[in-house]
Amino acid sequence: MAKQSGTNKAKENSKSTKKAFSKGDMAVYPAHGVGCIESIETQEINGDTMNFYMMKIVENGMTIMIPTSNVESVGLREVIPETEVPQVYEVMQKKAQASDNQTWNRRYREYMDKIKTGSIYDVAEVFRDLFQLKLEKDLSFGERKLLDTAQNLLVQELSMAKDVDEAYMIKEIENLFN
User: Which residues of 92-121 are buried (b: 16+ CB within 10 A; e: fewer)?
Assistant: First the structure.
């Protein structure tokens, strides 16, 4: 049996097992970031009564309705614990995957797919790869937007996990690359 790397083990741990969230809980919604469960509401849809988490995204105030029965399939998960932050830093400090032979739009699709997984480790890989690519050449408009998105998602969750403000977290991430 092959030995799992620490990062792979951490990735598995960050994929939430089905968790019941409560009002006031902070959670991560893929591609949107950290939000607060503001309420749990019951609504009737097509004759079926369903429960929904009403989640307000911290960054933009958008409210998302998430069926409580679909938490796993949509990727809603808890914010990582502070003890997992060093593992995220490890991912960011690894050498970027070479993607010189791919067109920018193919890279863009691959990066977008990773961001949509909701895994902070996948988001960290996207940030690392685009940040390092930016040092070698100009990024396309789409790649710059993805880099910003990945950075925002990382900063939101890591600052929440470490209980520090976002400005501090931005500096800490920048220091990883210096």
Answer: beeeeeeeeeeeeeebbeebeebbeebbbb
Phi and psi torsions of 34, nearest 5°? -80, 140
C-alpha closest to that of 86 among 15, 166, 149, 161: 161
Same domain, yes or no: 69 and 116? no
Integer Cα distance of 78 and 120 in angstroms: 11
* Domain shared by 87 and 74, yes or no: no
11 assigned to some structural domain: no
Same domain, 71 and 86: no
pLDDT of residue 98: 66
Listed in sequence order, the residues at least 6 apart from 178 whose beta carbon sits closer than 8 Å to its beta carbon are none
Residues 56-103 pLDDT 10s: 999 999 999 999 999 999 999 999 999 999 999 999 999 877 666 778
Element (H, E) at 118: none
- The span from the CA of 30 to the CA of 73, in Å, is 11
